[in-house]
Amino acid sequence: MVKLIFLLTREIIKNKMNIYKEGLERYPKVIIFWGNFLIILWILLGTIACRFFCPLIALIYLLFAVAMIGFVLRKLLCTNCYYYKRRCSLGWGKLSALFFKGGSIEKFNAGYGQKLASLTYGLLTVIPVIFIGILISQEFVIFKVIILILLLVVSIYSGVINRKKTCLKCKMRLICPGCAVKQS
Ligand code: SF4
Fold it and tell me: Where are the domains of the chain?
């Protein structure tokens, strides 16, 4: 009886919250693998770029990335997402369920989770680009230029092109302000 009431309530909230019905219930593993691979590569290139400048800054950058992407944003966003306990485009709905209690979709846009997400991904590119840019302006080293170019290519591909592809099929695309596809 309790389960029936729970399922009914969830259906009412889903309908009320404008869930994108054509969206995928669960994303294929290959998309999840590719999305995570790109983000790990992004953080790795950023860490290498910071390492050229100062090992301590590289460590702080890496710890910041892991703490924000692995925990803080999962707590603030994924616990209130339709994909909580489900396989979203990054699989983080399942990851967040390992650490945090679920919330409700109505709270998805409440609080500062969305703003923190944009700030986090922005900093993960801007910080290493500034540091390696300073070094290249002082001394032109081809390997550092390659790292800079790779960092820009991977972060733009992951943060814009690949995200657009996954947002297209996302159940949250009508609710999520961070959605990369224009709503028709
Ligand atoms: S779609 Fe985004 S907010 Fe929702 S569970 Fe996946 S990573 Fe978290």
Answer: 25-103+111-162
Phi first, then psi: give them for residue 14, nearest 5 degrees.
-55, -50
Distance 57 CA to ligand 1 centre (A): 29
- Residue entry with tokens 């669960």: 26
Q: Are 127 and 133 in contact (CB under 8 A)?
A: no
The amino acid occupying position 12 is I
Q: In this structure, what token pair is assigned to residue 109?
A: 């846009």
Of 71, 92, 107, which is best to mutate to test ligand 1, by the most ligand atoms within 8 angstroms of its C-beta?
92
Residue 96 corresponds to which tokens in the numbers above? Answer: 């967040």
> Which residue's alpha carbon is at the smallest distance from atom 5 of ligand 1?
93
Mutate to test the pocket of ligand 1, among 68, 73, 81 (most ligand atoms within 8 A of CB): 81
Task: Name the pTM for this structure.
Answer: 0.86
Nearest residue to 26 via CA among 82, 102, 106, 100: 82
Each residue's pLDDT tens digit, 41-94? 999 999 999 999 999 999 999 999 999 999 999 999 999 999 999 999 999 999
Closest to 100 in 3D by CA, of 83, 120, 76: 76
Q: Quick one: which atom of ligand 1 is closest to the CA of 108?
A: 3
